[in-house]
Amino acid sequence: MSQIQYIKCPYCSKTVSYNENHLNICIPNYVDGILLNCYSCGKQNKKYSNSQLTKEDKARCIDCVSNDIKTKFMPYRHLYINEYHREHYDVNNTIDKQLEFAVGELNLPKVNELLEIGANPNYNRQDTFQPINKFIRLLSYNADGSEKPENDDIQPSTPLKLCVFRFSDCDLTCSQRSTLIKIAEQLIKYGASAIEAKEYYECRYGTPDIDNGEEIEEIEEIAEVENNNSDVERNKKWNEFYKLLCNKK
Ligand SMILES: [Zn+2]
Ligand SMILES: [Zn+2]
């Protein structure tokens, strides 16, 4: 199956087909005998050694050479997902993407902050693809430049599904699971679809029998012993989370 993958050029931000070789020719850096920008830092009016100047459009300024910076300057590098993870709270990233990241790292204050300023609790995260023979993943776009949403039932594609996904991380402490539940509560309060997340929970972990037998009525704040959760404590958290998604608090 060959399907055209579109990306945003990390140099000029245009939407281009990944295969059209645009990346190699983007940014004419040497126009009419004048060097516009340093190849690596992208800055104008830098100083160059004579040997660098012979490299024309690939010339690097004295500062970049002395700091051993060799990569090609990318003004829009956040469009690449491997960079995006490093710059997740960068102002260039949408608040929806920042919300996705804040949920992933269990950052409740940041989640609250982003929801308050209008981040979308039902944001469907962007699709990515791995180019053949490359160890990177690139963010995927439609031909018109709009984000291509991820469309895969087994992936945690929304913030609330990401809560469900993260909940099974066996390294989580009771305190961290409580934080995830609080994050899920906030997302639902701001309009996240609990039904979708409940289906996702059931699809991943099965349907807990909370109406018969095992239901735990009183969820008390457990004296938390970090990294030493008993099964009982853990099960309480699982039930509490599931009931939240079922709206059976
Ligand atoms: Zn370009
Ligand atoms: Zn430079």
The secondary structure category is mainly alpha
General shape: elongated
Helix content: 25-40%
Would you tell me the overall average pLDDT? 82
Determine and state the CATH class of the largest domain.
Mainly Alpha
Low-pLDDT ranges: 215-227
Computed Rg: 24 Å
Reported by name, the CATH topology of the largest domain is Serine Threonine Protein Phosphatase 5, Tetratricopeptide repeat
Between the first and last Cα atoms, what is the distance in angstroms? 47 Å
Overall description:
- The chain is mostly helical and 249 residues long.
- It has 2 domains: 6-66, no CATH class; 94-124 and 153-249, Serine Threonine Protein Phosphatase 5, Tetratricopeptide repeat, CATH 1.25.40.
- The protein has 10 helices and 6 strands, in the order E-E-H-E-E-H-H-H-H-H-E-E-H-H-H-H.
- It has helices at residues 22-25, 50-53, 62-66, 81-84, 95-104, 108-116, 159-167, 174-189, 194-205, 231-246, and strands at 6-8, 15-17, 30-31, 34-35, 128-129, 138-139.
- The protein has a two-stranded antiparallel ribbon.
- Strand 3 and strand 4 form a beta hairpin.
- Helix 6 packs parallel to helix 8 and helix 7 packs antiparallel against helix 8 (174-189).
- The longest helix has 16 residues, at 174-189.
- The chain is elongated, with a radius of gyration of 24 Å.
- The model is unreliable at 215-227 (pLDDT under 50).
- One zinc ion binds next to loops.
- One zinc ion binds at residues 38, 40-41, 43, 46, 60-61, 63-64.
